[in-house]
Amino acid sequence: MARIDRINEEIRNELAKLLPSLKDPRLSSGLVSITRVDATNDLSRAEVYFSVLGGSEKEVAQGLRSAAGFLRRELAHRMQLRATPELRFTYDRSIERGTHILEVMKQVESEHKEDE
Questions:
Q1: Residue 23 near residue 70, CB atoms below 8 Å
Q2: How far is residue 114's CA from residue 27's CA, in Å, rounded to a whole number?
């Protein structure tokens, strides 16, 4: 595993630990998960992908953006990095796409059984 991959995973783990400590009501509207982190090689920025179960993606995104400074400071305290990246939050649609694909596959399977 490459160094940047290990750093991405460590950032993801630390952010996941920090999320429950955030008091923003926008973040408690549903289950928020950090799904992936992609930091640049120079660690100047990190794209943080998140998913939401049972809440508003827009509200959660606003809450995370509001907490970005706090989260970055906490990462700096917890991790031994020469630079702590600026955090940018992006909603991860892969879970939605996966669910949609499963629904389509079930529908096709059901139609196939009816044709037999």
A1: no
A2: 44
Amino acid sitting at position 82: R
Tokens of 76: 């700096």
Q: Measuring CA to CA, how many Å separate 39 from each of 32, 44, 101, 109?
A: 20, 8, 29, 40
Residue (of 35, 11, 42) closest to 98 by Cα position: 35
What are the chain's domains?
3-115 (3.30.300.20)
Name 58's Cβ contacts closer than 8 Å, sequence gap at least 6: none
Q: What is the mean pLDDT of each run of 10 residues along the chain (116 residues)?
A: 92 95 85 94 95 87 95 94 93 79 83 74
Helix-then-strand count for the chain, H and E: 3, 3
CA-CA distance, 63 to 110, in Å (whole number)? 41
pTM attached to this predicted model: 0.81
3-state helix, strand, coil in the chain (%, to 5): 55, 20, 20
